[in-house]
Write a structure and sequence with these properties.
The structure is a single chain. By secondary structure, the chain is α+β, with helices and mostly antiparallel strands.
C-alpha cells in the first residue's frame, strides 16, 4: 500500500494540525489510524487516492458534510462516513473529535471484487455516504481493532483479519451491487501443512494474515475463508490456540513465565496471562495447580 504519509486524507489531516494517535499497515492494501482534532475550520479531501471508512469514536457533533447546496450534520459518536477514492468532499469542522479510519487501496478493493465475488471492478462503485450507522461495523472496530495492540505478534493476525473483513463487508453491502458470497473450497492438505510449519517455526515472531496466506500460496482473501472452512476457526483463533498450547507445554516443563511469553509471541507476562485466561478459563498459576504442579510465586501478578 502507499506509505501512510502519502495517503491523501492522512496528508490533509496532518496539514490541519490534527493529532495522529496511532496508525499501522494491517495487510495488503489496508491501513488503520486514530485521529484527534479540535478546531473550527473547513476541510476539503481533494480526489483522495484511497477509499476511507471513518467511525466517530468520541464527540464530532459539530461536524457536517456539504451535499450540493446543503449540509448533512453529524450525530456524534457512532456515526460512520464512507469516502470513495477520487471523490472530492467538503467538511465543516467545529469542536473536538476522535475518529478511527480504515484506508483501503483501490487495487486491494478491486482484487477482492474479482476474487471474492467474481465481478468486474469497473462495474462496482463504493457508496459515497456520511453519517450513517451500522452496529456490525462499529462493534467490529471497537471490539476487534481498537482493543488490540496493532503491532504485537499475538494481535496482528486478528487486526489484519478484521480489516479484511471490514473491506469485504463494504464490498458486499455498500456498493451499487449486493452479491451473495460465493461458496469457496477449503485449503488443501499441503497448504495447511505449510501454514502449520510456518507457525511452528516463527511462533515467537510477529505473524500477520498475509504471512500465513503466502505460505498457503493464496491471497489473504481466499486464505481467510478457505482456512475457516477447513479448520472451523479463523486464522487468528488457530494461531492463538497454538501459542497457548505451546505455553501450556512450557509451563509443565517449568519454564519461567516471562520466557514463555517471549517464546510464544506475546508482548509481555501480563499479555500472556490475559490470553491464557481467555482461551483456557484459567490463569497460568491455576493451570499448573490443575496439573498438580507448584506455580512460581506471584507469577500472575502484573509487572
Amino acid at each position: 500500500m502507499t506509505a501512510l504519509a502519502d495517503l491523501t486524507i492522512v496528508r490533509t489531516l496532518h496539514a490541519t494540525g490534527a493529532i495522529l494517535r496511532s496508525a499501522a499497515h494491517v495487510g495488503q492494501g489496508l491501513a488503520v489510524a486514530v485521529w484527534d482534532r479540535d478546531e473550527v475550520a473547513q476541510t476539503r479531501y481533494d480526489t483522495p487516492n484511497h477509499h476511507t471508512l471513518s467511525l466517530y469514536l468520541e464527540h464530532g457533533e459539530g461536524f457536517r458534510k456539504r451535499l450540493g447546496n446543503s449540509w448533512k450534520c453529524s450525530n456524534g459518536a457512532g456515526d460512520l462516513c464512507l469516502m470513495p477514492a477520487r471523490s472530492t468532499s467538503d467538511w465543516d469542522v467545529s469542536g473536538p473529535i476522535r475518529m478511527f479510519h480504515l484506508y483501503i487501496a483501490p487495487q486491494a478493493f478491486d482484487r477482492a471484487t474479482v476474487e471474492l465475488f467474481g465481478m468486474d471492478p469497473a462495474r462496482v462503485t463504493l457508496r459515497d455516504d456520511a453519517y450513517f450507522r451500522d452496529a456490525r461495523i462499529e462493534a467490529r472496530v471497537r471490539a476487534t481493532i481498537l482493543s488490540r495492540h496493532w503491532t504485537q505478534p499475538a494481535d496482528r493476525v486478528a487486526v489484519t483479519q478484521a480489516g479484511t473483513d471490514l473491506m469485504t463487508y463494504l464490498l458486499a453491502h455498500m456498493t451499487d451491487r449486493r452479491p451473495d458470497m460465493p461458496r469457496r473450497g477449503g485449503l488443501s492438505q499441503a497448504a495447511s501443512r505449510r501454514v502449520r510449519a510456518l507457525i511452528d517455526a516463527r511462533m515467537d515472531q510477529p505473524l500477520c494474515l498475509d504471512d500465513l496466506a503466502d505460505a498457503a500460496g493464496l491471497s489473504s482473501f481466499h486464505f481467510a475463508r478457505g482456512f475457516r472452512q477447513t479448520h472451523g476457526e479463523t486464522p487468528h483463533h488457530f494461531l492463538t490456540r497454538l501459542r497457548i498450547e505451546r505455553a501450556q507445554h512450557l509451563l509443565r516443563q517449568g519454564a519461567p513465565l516471562a520466557r514463555i511469553a517471549e517464546l510464544c509471541g506475546f508482548s509481555s507476562h501480563s499479555h500472556l496471562t490475559a490470553r491464557f485466561r481467555a482461551v483456557t478459563g484459567l490463569t497460568p498459576s491455576d493451570y499448573l495447580r490443575h496439573c498438580g504442579l507448584r506455580p512460581e510465586p506471584a507469577e500472575d501478578a502484573p509487572r
